[in-house]
Every structure is written in structure tokens, then in C-alpha cells.
Write a structure and sequence with these properties.
The complex is a heterodimer of chains A (about 110) and B (about 110).
Chain A (H helix, E strand, L loop, with lengths): L3 E4 L2 E5 L4 E7 L6 E7 L6 E7 L4 E4 L2 E6 L4 E6 L8 E8 L8 E3 L3 E6 L1
Parallel strand pairs in A: 2-11
Antiparallel strand pairs in A: 1-3, 3-8, 4-5, 4-9, 6-7, 7-8, 9-10, 9-11
Chain B lengths: L3 E4 L2 E4 L5 E7 L5 E7 L6 E8 L2 E4 L7 E2 L9 E3 L8 E8 L8 E2 L3 E5 L1
Parallel strand pairs in B: 2-11
Antiparallel strand pairs in B: 1-3, 3-8, 4-5, 4-9, 5-6, 7-8, 9-10, 9-11
């Protein structure tokens, strides 16, 4: 069964600290994996995409990793800011074609305290 | 910033009423979607469209219907709302590409009393 599991479910950190969010998937075949950020009351926004051949990709203070062998991805946030408080959703695509399906994780709710 | 708009943002209605949630995008995307999102749960696909006059049901059984008469417009209609329809509804669009980035609207929060 194709699934996407995220951990932890929720996380509280102090401003300026680093944190790492995890995403494990069983989706096959695999095309790509995206991390989305969803602020409260808003729609999700894409942070980064990882394809099969990519191990690490950075977008400012966000760094995503992908291990396609173990089917794991992580999102590392450096020097957290209050504006990082949001839900982070991992989404895996199985084919990347027009008919490809998307599998969503339940998200990690991150709260950054001052 | 994504050019996809949803109205209304918030709606509180009584049981049995008919409602339409509007979604419009100005990016010329062929693919459009409706997702349902409840707190702490993953997004569930309820409808999608590959283009004009194309609509398909998603994974989550829904009593809603959609139409795609114009590329930019993808409204969702509930003929008779029930309390079980209370949820957040997210509209999204994407271009026909292998990377398939979704661009989401702000969402419509529906409460049925």
C-alpha cells in the first residue's frame, strides 16, 4: 500500500534553533518528492522538490535530503524564525506523468517560540 | 505568489442549503483539483480535471459535483449541505509537467450547522 508517514506529528522549538522533520514513504514507482509549507489558514506552498537522482537540495534556510534506497526524506530548518511556524507536508508522486498520483503525509506542525 | 483564488474564504450555512465554492486561476493551467482537509489529517482528493469538459472523481467519496466549462474556472457544488460536509476545501492547479507542482488557493472553510 502506497503511504507517506511523517514524524514528528508536532514539534516546538525556540527561535534560532535548528530542527529536522522526517518523511518515510512506500510509494512505488517513485517520481519525485515535494515539501510544502502550509501557514495557518492558508494553502500549502512548495518549498522544494527532490527527484530520484538528487540527494540534497537547499532553499535558503531549508535543506531537503532524499535517500531513495531507504525511501526516506528529511527537511532541515536552520536558525528558525517565528515565521517558520507552520505545517510542513511531504508529498510523493508515483509517476510524474499526467496520470501520476500524489500521496500526502499528514504533516508536521512546527511551532517556533520566541 | 500563486494566482489562484477561492471564494468564499469562510461560509456558515444551515443543513439542506445548496452551496457553490468558487475557484479561479490565471496561470493557464490545464489541471485543477479540489482537496478536502481536516485538522491533523492528510489532504484528500475529491475531484480533478485535466482540462475543459474533463472532470473525474478523486479518492474520497464526495456528494459534491464540479464543472470545468472554462480553463480558469473550477467550481464545486453541494446540492444539499450536511454537518458531515464541515471541512476545509482547498483548490489547486498545476501545469502538465513531470514535476507537477501544485499551486493552492487560500481555502474555503465550510461550516454546516
Amino acid at each position: 500500500k502506497n503511504q507517506v508517514e511523517q514524524s514528528p506529528q508536532s514539534l516546538i522549538i525556540l527561535e534560532g534553533k535548528n530542527c529536522t522533520l522526517q518523511c518515510n514513504y512506500t510509494v512505488s514507482p517513485f517520481s519525485n518528492l515535494r515539501w510544502y509549507k502550509q501557514d495557518t489558514g492558508r494553502g500549502p506552498v512548495s518549498l522544494t522538490i527532490m527527484t530520484f537522482s538528487e540527494n540534497t537540495k537547499s532553499n535558503g534556510r531549508y535543506t531537503a535530503t532524499l535517500d531513495a534506497d531507504t525511501k526516506q526524506s528529511s527537511l532541515h530548518i536552520t536558525a528558525s524564525q517565528l515565521s517558520d511556524s507552520a505545517s510542513y507536508i511531504c508529498v510523493v508522486s508515483d509517476r510524474g506523468s499526467t496520470l501520476g498520483r500524489l500521496y500526502f503525509g499528514r504533516g508536521t506542525q512546527l511551532t517556533v517560540w520566541p | 505568489e500563486a494566482d489562484i483564488y477561492q471564494t468564499p474564504r469562510y461560509l456558515v450555512i444551515g443543513t439542506g442549503k445548496k452551496i457553490t465554492l468558487e475557484c479561479s486561476q490565471t496561470m493557464g493551467h490545464d489541471k485543477m483539483y479540489w482537496y478536502q482537509q481536516d485538522p491533523g489529517m492528510e489532504l484528500h482528493l475529491i475531484h480533478y480535471s485535466y482540462g475543459v469538459n474533463s472532470t473525474e472523481k478523486g479518492d474520497l467519496s464526495s456528494e459534491s459535483t464540479v464543472s470545468r466549462i472554462r480553463t480558469e474556472h473550477f467550481p464545486l457544488t453541494l446540492e444539499s449541505a450536511r454537518p458531515s460536509h464541515t471541512s476545509q476545501y482547498l483548490c489547486a492547479s498545476s501545469a502538465l509537467s513531470n514535476t507537477g507542482e501544485l499551486f493552492f488557493g487560500e481555502g474555503s472553510r465550510l461550516t454546516v450547522l
